Structures are given as C-alpha cells and as structure tokens.
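Format notes (please read before filing issues)

Several people have asked whether sequences and structure tokens are stored in separate files. They are not. Every record keeps both together, in the order shown below: the sequence lines, then the token lines. Line labels are part of the format and must not be stripped during preprocessing.
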Amino acid sequence: MTAVAHKMEDEEHDDRQRRDIVSGEIMPEHRLIRFVAAPDGVIVPDAAAKLPGRGLWVEATRKAIAMAVEKKLFARAAKAQVSATADLADRAEKALVARIVGDLGIARRSGTLVLGFDNVLRALDGPKAPPSLLIEASDGAKDGKRKLYNAAHARELKPMVAECLTSAELGLALGRENVIHAAVHPGGLAERLTLDMQRLKALRNESKR
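Then the structure lines:
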C-alpha cells in the first residue's frame, strides 16, 4: 500500500454509526455496506442505503460478508426466512462501482469534477474552494500521485485521496481515455464519493491479498 493510501486509511470521518451484524461492533457507515431482503427473501446489496426494508449492515470486507452468508447471520438479524448467495460480495462490489461511476458522471456534468494532473494542480490554487477529494487511478504511476499529494500538503490542504478505481474504469465513467488524476470540489457529491470509495477500497484491497 502506498503512503497516499495510508493517508486515506487514517483520515477520520463523522458519518453515522451502525452495528455490524457479524461482529456486533458499532462502526461508522463508511466502513459498512447496507443489505436488505428483496420481496422474494433474497438478500441484495443496497449501495445507496435507500431501498425499503430493514437495513442489515455488514463490514465492507469480503471476509465479513462471506461469514454473514455462511453462518446465516442475515436471517438471524432480520428475524425472518431470508437467503443470501455466495456471490454477495461480488454483487456488493459491482453495486458500489455502478454508484461511483454514476456520481462521477454527475460531478463531471455539474462542473465539480476536475480532470488531469495540470488541472488538478491548478484547482488547488483556484478561485473555487480547493478539492476535498483527489481521485487517482490505482494503476497510475506513483510519482504523479505523490506530486499532487505533496502539492496539497504544501498548501496545508488535507483532501481525501482515493485509489480504488483503475484508469480504464475512470475513463469509462468519464468518457475519456487514460484517466489517471481527477479531483472533486467540496459538496455532497464529494462526500458521497468519499464514503463509497472507502467501502470499495476495503473490498478490493482484501481481494488482492
């Protein structure tokens, strides 16, 4: 894991607290994924946390989700006959990616997203509030990431840094090729992207071990 990724890991957040049905631990929402039972009783991921029904929160790791499935903890927590399939972690990851991709598109269209190394660097000194979220392709060169992080640090800025999407995924989301560096100005979209990217980072980092 890069130094930048460690910085992201160490940042503190003030989001709401929920109970993980696997460990029983109370955790902030950015560490959890919400699941609900569909009308047919099958457990589905709720990346937006807006689906009707009782929310069943699980730590955003493949290990925790697998344990919830194997030990039938969803049925215990829901106090109902519900079922969960073995691919639930994969479906949770896909749901998060789809939500992030959609929000990146909204950010681009609304003008709150900045693309490209030079543009991100200029945004740190621009007339708008400096970006609160730096997005770096997970397969991008470390040197460019380090330069942008150091530039933010030199200006006494502390943006969240996310490295959970590949350049191809970023390019697909933003309709451009070879997207390595991006940033989002402060606001609701930046907060939502930050939360979802932390969840996705947890799922993907674990799958690479």
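For reference, the curators noted about this record: The radius of gyration is 18 Å. The chain has a mean pLDDT of 90.
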